[in-house]
C-alpha cells in the first residue's frame, strides 16, 4: 500500500516577523508528519532568505522554497505598507493560483493551504480551488480578538468606521481579558488616516475570509492568554513554536546571523548581559540612537546589541557617540543580526531590551528572561501591556518632553529591573507554565496533535 504524504502550501505575510514563525510551523510539521511543504515567499523576500542561509543550513533539503511577485519593482519601498498591501492584493492571488494549479498538474495534489491570517485572500484562493485551509496567526490571540471585534467596537462608539479613536479610556473586550487602551490597537498606531482606513478595510476583508478556513491556529498558549482564547474558542493555541524544542535552528531570516556573539556570551558571567534588539522594522532617529548608546554606556553593564544596517534613520557607523566603542570596549558586543533564540537561551543573558514583537516576546518568556520594553508600532504596544501589566515580567520606558527616551531613563529602568528579583522570579514562573504547555500532555501540544491528525485526513481537492 502506497503511504499518503500530505503536501502543504504555506504562505506568510511578507515581513520578517511573519516569515519566521510560519517557517517554524512548517519545520515542525515536517518533523511530526513527514509531509511535503512548498513555502511561498514574495520574490523580494525569497532572495533575502536564500542569500542569508548559512553553509550548514539544510532547510532547502526539507522545504521547497519558491516565490511569486508582490507587484512592486525591486527598488520600490516595501516599508510603505499601504503601497505594498495594495500591490499584494492585486498581484499575488492570481500568482498563487498558478502555483497550486502547476503543482496539482504534476500528480502531487495539494492537501492543504496554510496562510497567514493577514493574507486572507490566500484562504479564498484555496476555497475556489476546493482545497482545505488553515489560517495561521503569528501574534497574540488578544490582538486577533481586537481585529475580530472591530464591528462591535464601532457599534459601541469606541472607534469610527475608519479606525479613529472616539473614546480613549481603557476597555475590556470581554470580562476575562486584560484592559486594552484603544490607542494601542494595531491600526491606531499609524498616524496617517488613509493608512488606518486601508487597514480597517483589510481587517473587514480578512475577518470574512477567515470563515473559509477549517482551522485558525495561533502561535501562543492558553497559559499566556486565557481570556482571549476563551472569548474566541475557534482560535486554537499551538505555541510557542520554538526551534529549540525540536532540537533544530530557526530558518527564514532576512539577514545572515552572526553566531560569533554566542562565543562572546560564553565569556560573560551568568545573568549579567542585557540583550538589545528591535526586530526587523524599528527605525530610530540619530538623537534616540545616541541616547540609547549613552544609556548602555552609563549603565556600566555588559550588553549585546543588534544594530541592523537600516536601524538608524540616515545613519552609518559614525552615528555612534564619539568614542563610544572605545569607552565600552569588550563590555559591549555589537552585531548586525543575531541567532536570537540561542541568545535568549544563553545563561549569561539577564534581560531583554526589546521592541516587544510577538516572536521576541514568546522567545523571551520561554527562556524566563525579563524585559525592558521599547515598542515601536502595531501590536507591540499591546504586547508591552501584557509584559508589564498582566504578567509583570518587565518595565517600560517613559519619553521626555521632546519625545525621546533619555539615557538617564534607560539607566534608571535598568537599575530598577536588576535591583528587584521578583521580575526574574515571575519570569521563571511564567516560563514553567508556557513550557509545560508545549510538552507532551500540555494544552498547546494536544491542540497541535489534533491539527496534525486533521492534516492526515486531507487528500487534495474536496
Structural write-up:
This protein is of the alpha/beta class. It has two domains: 7-237, Rossmann fold, CATH 3.40.50; 260-434, Rossmann fold (3-Layer(aba) Sandwich), CATH 3.40.50.2000. Helix content is 43%, strand content 13%. It contains 18 helices and 13 strands. It has a seven-stranded parallel β-sheet with strand order 3-2-1-4-5-6-7, sandwiched between helices. A six-stranded parallel β-sheet has the order 10-9-8-11-12-13, with helices on both faces. Strand 6 (215-218), helix 9 and strand 7 (235-237) form a beta-alpha-beta unit. Helix 11 crosses helix 16.
Question: What key attributes describe this structure?
Answer:
13 strands, alpha/beta, Rossmann fold, 13% strand, 7-stranded parallel β-sheet, 6-stranded parallel β-sheet, 18 helices, 462 residues
Strand content range: 5-15%
**What is the structural class?**
alpha/beta
Number of strands: 13
- Please tell me the CATH architecture of the largest domain by its name: 3-Layer(aba) Sandwich
Query: Which homologous superfamily in CATH is the superfamily of the largest domain?
Result: Glycogen Phosphorylase B
User: How confident overall, as mean pLDDT?
Assistant: 95
Number of domains: 2
Low-confidence segments, given as residue ranges, are none
What is the straight-line distance between the termini?
22 Å
Q: State the helix count.
A: 18
Dominant shape: globular
Amino acid at each position: 500500500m502506497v503511504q499518503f504524504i500530505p503536501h502543504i502550501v504555506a504562505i506568510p505575510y511578507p515581513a520578517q516577523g511573519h516569515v519566521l514563525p510560519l517557517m517554524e510551523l512548517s519545520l515542525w510539521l515536517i518533523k511530526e508528519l513527514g509531509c511535503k511543504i512548498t513555502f511561498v515567499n514574495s520574490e523580494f523576500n525569497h532572495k533575502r532568505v536564500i542569500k542569508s542561509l548559512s553553509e550548514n543550513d539544510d532547510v532547502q533539503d526539507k522545504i521547497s522554497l519558491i516565490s511569486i511577485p508582490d507587484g512592486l519593482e525591486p527598488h520600490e519601498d516595501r516599508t510603505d505598507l499601504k503601497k505594498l498591501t495594495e500591490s499584494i492584493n492585486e498581484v499575488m492571488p492570481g500568482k498563487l493560483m498558478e502555483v497550486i494549479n502547476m503543482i496539482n498538474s504534476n500528480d502531487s495534489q495539494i492537501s492543504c493551504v496554510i496562510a497567514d491570517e493577514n493574507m486572507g485572500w490566500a484562504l479564498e484562493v484555496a476555497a475556489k480551488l476546493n482545497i482545505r485551509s488553515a489560517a495561521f496567526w503569528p501574534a497574540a490571540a488578544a490582538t486577533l480578538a481586537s481585529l475580530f471585534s472591530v464591528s462591535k467596537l464601532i457599534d459601541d462608539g469606541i472607534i469610527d468606521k475608519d479606525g479613529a479613536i472616539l473614546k480613549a479610556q481603557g476597555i475590556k473586550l470581554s470580562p476575562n481579558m486584560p484592559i486594552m487602551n484603544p490607542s494601542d490597537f494595531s491600526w491606531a498606531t499609524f498616524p496617517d488616516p488613509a493608512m488606518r482606513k486601508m487597514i480597517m478595510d483589510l481587517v473587514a476583508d480578512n475577518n470574512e475570509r477567515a470563515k473559509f478556513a477549517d482551522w485558525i491556529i495561533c502561535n501562543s498558549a492558553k497559559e499566556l492568554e486565557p481570556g482571549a482564547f476563551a472569548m474566541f474558542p475557534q482560535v486554537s493555541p499551538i505555541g510557542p513554536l520554538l526551534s529549540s524544542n525540536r532540537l533544530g535552528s530557526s530558518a527564514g531570516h532576512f539577514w545572515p546571523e552572526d553566531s560569533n556573539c554566542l562565543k562572546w556570551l560564553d565569556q560573560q558571567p551568568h545573568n549579567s548581559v542585557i540583550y538589545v534588539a528591535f526586530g526587523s522594522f524599528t527605525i530610530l532617529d540619530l538623537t534616540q540612537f545616541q541616547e540609547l548608546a549613552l544609556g548602555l554606556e552609563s549603565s556600566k553593564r555588559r550588553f549585546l546589541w543588534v544594530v541592523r544596517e537600516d536601524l538608524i534613520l540616515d545613519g552609518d557607523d559614525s552615528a555612534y557617540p564619539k568614542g563610544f566603542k572605545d569607552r565600552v570596549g569588550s563590555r559591549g558586543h555589537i552585531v548586525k543580526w543575531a541567532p536570537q533564540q540561542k541568545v535568549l537561551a544563553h545563561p549569561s543573558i539577564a534581560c531583554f531590551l526589546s521592541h516587544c514583537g510577538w516572536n521576541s516576546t514568546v522567545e523571551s518568556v520561554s527562556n524566563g528572561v525579563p524585559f525592558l520594553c521599547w515598542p515601536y508600532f502595531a501590536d507591540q504596544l499591546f504586547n508591552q501591556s501584557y509584559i508589564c501589566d498582566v504578567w509583570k515580567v518587565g518595565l517600560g520606558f517613559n519619553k521626555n518632553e521632546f519625545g525621546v527616551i533619555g539615557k538617564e531613563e534607560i539607566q534608571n529602568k535598568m537599575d530598577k529591573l536588576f535591583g528587584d528579583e521578583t521580575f526574574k522570579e515571575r519570569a521563571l514562573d511564567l516560563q514553567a507554565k508556557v513550557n509545560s504547555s508545549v510538552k507532551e500532555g500540555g494544552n498547546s501540544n494536544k491542540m497541535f496533535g489534533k491539527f496534525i491528525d486533521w492534516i492526515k485526513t486531507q487528500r487534495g481537492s474536496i
